[in-house]
């Protein structure tokens, strides 16, 4: 049981970087960006090819970050310069990335990283001899998630970050303040998918392979983690929100691990995830209804 929790926690921390990326488009920019399903594979493919060729795993992780940023840049240009709706821009980029990802992996549908040096083998060298791959994933995931949260928190406190938030909150008002909203959207999408690409690179190293289909359903997983984190841990401040995103990702992975333990077929995972997101989205509205009924009932009783 402990092994299941540790494995789920480690994987959840790696996915939390992707969750933060999804949050930036879904909440900050108010855009449903489906590029994520392609950019996570792009990051995984870029990292896997470099590592398989004998490259440094940390340099490979940086390449995954940059590759993800490139995908977000393309989506942003499609949306702002060609005036294609944001949702359709993400879909077009996601479809195109399927072919591009196969080209990155040199025509193969997957790249194996078995017996290759990854970030986790490097981290294991610094840990006690009793540590295993799950402990290495938790250590690396904590460091990466903390670094990403700190960087995102700092960035969105700067003038540029505030401009991106203003563009997502009220585009007309942002334009009236002299903000180039097109540039802000492009930068926001690039940053979001850069984090998603980095997450893909780290996940590929943990799993030991990169596969062209590993991104299917990833946007729903990201949204599930966002909603779960917001519902369970709150969003009173931006710092609290970032913390809730990381915790939501870990909680989601632990829930999935226990569902698997109970015997749910792997083929039902996507259905379970979709139902989880639907329930989490409806929960705040249901809570408000209960609160109104309780308040109304109390008022009648007093009267």
Average pLDDT level: 90
Total strands: 2
C-alpha end-to-end distance:
53 Å
The amount of beta strand, in percent, is under 5%
Poorly predicted segments: 299-303
Q: Provide the succession of SSEs.
A: HHHHEHHHHHEHHH
Structural class of the secondary structure composition?
mainly alpha
Can you tag this structure with a few keywords?
303 residues, two-stranded antiparallel ribbon, globular, disordered C terminus
Characterise this structure.
It is a single chain. By secondary structure, this protein is mainly alpha-helical. The chain has a domain of 212 residues. Strands 1-2 form a two-stranded antiparallel ribbon. The longest helix is centred in the last third of the chain and has 34 residues. It is globular and about 55 Å long.
Topology:
Blueprint: H1 2-28, H2 36-52, H3 57-80, H4 86-104, E1 110-112, H5 119-124, H6 133-155, H7 159-169, H8 171-176, H9 181-207, E2 209-211, H10 218-233, H11 238-261, H12 269-302
Antiparallel strand pairs: 1-2
Helix pairs in contact: 1-6, 1-9, 1-10, 1-11, 2-3, 2-4, 2-9, 3-4, 3-9, 7-9, 10-11, 10-12
Q: What does this entry show, briefly?
A:
This protein has 303 residues and is mainly alpha-helical.
């Amino acid at each position: 049981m402990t092994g299941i929790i540790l494995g789920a926690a480690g994987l959840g921390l790696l996915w939390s970087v992707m969750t933060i990326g999804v949050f930036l488009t879904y909440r900050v920019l108010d855009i449903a960006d489906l590029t994520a399903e392609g950019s996570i594979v792009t990051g995984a493919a870029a990292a896997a090819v470099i590592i398989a060729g004998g490259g440094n795993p940390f340099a490979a992780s940086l390449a995954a970050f940059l590759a993800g940023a490139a995908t977000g840049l393309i989506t942003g240009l499609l949306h702002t310069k060609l005036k294609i709706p944001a949702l359709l821009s993400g879909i077009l980029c996601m479809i195109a990335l399927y072919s591009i990802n196969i080209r990155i992996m040199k025509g193969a549908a997957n790249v194996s990283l078995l017996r290759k040096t990854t970030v986790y083998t490097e981290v294991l060298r610094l840990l006690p001899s009793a540590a295993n791959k799950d402990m290495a994933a938790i250590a690396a995931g904590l460091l990466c998630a903390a670094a990403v949260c700190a960087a995102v928190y700092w960035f969105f406190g700067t003038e540029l970050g505030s401009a991106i938030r203003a563009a997502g909150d009220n585009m007309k008002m942002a334009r009236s303040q002299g903000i180039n909203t097109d540039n802000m959207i492009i930068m926001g999408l690039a940053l979001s998918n850069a984090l998603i690409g980095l997450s893909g690179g780290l996940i590929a190293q943990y799993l030991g392979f990169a596969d062209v289909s590993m991104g299917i359903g990833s946007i729903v997983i990201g949204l599930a983690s966002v909603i779960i984190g917001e519902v369970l841990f709150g969003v009173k401040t931006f710092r609290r929100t970032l913390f809730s995103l990381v915790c939501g990702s870990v909680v989601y992975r632990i829930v999935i691990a226990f569902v698997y333990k109970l015997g749910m077929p792997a083929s039902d995972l996507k259905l379970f995830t979709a139902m989880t997101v639907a329930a989490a989205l409806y929960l705040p509205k249901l809570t408000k209804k209960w609160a109104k009924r309780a308040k109304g009932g109390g008022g009648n009783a007093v009267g």
